[in-house]
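Z., the sequence and structure:
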Amino acid sequence: MKTISIVTPCFNEELNIRECYEVIKALFADKLPGYRREHIFCDNASTDRTAEILQEIAAADPDVKVIVNTRNFGPLRSNYNGVMASSGDAVLLCMVADLQDPPELIPQFIKHWEQGTEVVFGIRATREESWIMRNVRGAYYRLLTGVSQMGVPPGVGDFQLVDKRVVDAMRQIDDAYPFMRMMTFEIGYNAVGVPYRWVARKRGISKNSLLRLIDQGMNGLITFTSAPIRIVLFTGFFIAALAILYAVAIFAASLIMYREFAPPGIATLITAVFFFGGVQLFVTGLIGEYILAIYGQVRRKPLVFERTRLNFPTEKETTKDLSNGQR
């Protein structure tokens, strides 16, 4: 019997976590009876009853595994750590606890996977969110996919089912801040997209703050494209070139209209400011190229620090009270 791993990152999701578990369990019992379920919950040191509820679920269901972090390491690191702990023949990289990505697509994902597709990814064709957020996200993903060289369609998130060979390849990437949704395309296996509607939360509020979203967005741009650095470099070069052209034009105008065009020294001052500003941007961009190359080589630190694991066969199982352990 093949095993399908489902990874769910969570932080303060006491209102949603049990429903997420029940929905996935019922889905496998009803639509996927020929597959074994491995549901991995990655708790980011929740301060509500999330860890306590997960302990209860894991005690009653051996197909549920739980990782509890020592502190909140952010959703990207915590989620990726859960994927690295998975053992399934295929892995759903992220099943959000609030079920904004539809679990009912999982059988369709598995069907594509059984037909030989190693990466089956969801495409958020429509979103139930505010106009501002919808357009900001859309602009970002168009930028990210436009400047990357991997041909990723806009709207792709971490809601992806990948073959274990893809996960094994991901394990070879030593990145302390992984951007998983692009990593699967970087590896280069066969991929197919499935469009869907990303629904609004039923309960609770998103734990991803604006600053954390910006941080994740910058991580994606820096990790998978050198476009930000190159934009600065070429902008600096362009400004410096314009400054030279401006200087030539001012010099010609000064010869024709001596002392009438501008007071002596003003044109020189303006030219110098623009020229050296452009040169500084150019040099900053050039240095950034080297820093970017070095940055890709020295980014080494643990993904997360774990407090405990439950139901993992290679780890010593524990029954201690998780809520007391986090105090």
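The longest strand covers residues 2-10. The two ends are 41 Å apart (CA to CA).

Let me know what you think.
H.
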